[in-house]
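Hey, resending since the last one bounced:
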Amino acid sequence: MKKEYEFKNAKRGAVIKTKGKTRITIYLDDNVIETFRKMADETGTGYQTMINEVLREYLDKSTGPLDEETLRRILREELHTA
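The structure tokens again:
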């Protein structure tokens, strides 16, 4: 082992970077966490993975193609203002 190390070019963070995922700290309600943990135990997957899947599904749904109901509402609004 060296007596002294040079850290002037050192960077903070993980030694091995993960691709496509970022570690964060987030506060969620206790009952939300417990519900996901129970569901994860039943299905054999991780609760964090399940939370990620639910968030991804929400984002896909909110930014995805329009459903029939939303399209009809938009058309009504536009026809009303025209």
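The first helix runs from residue 30 to 43.

Sorry for the duplicate.
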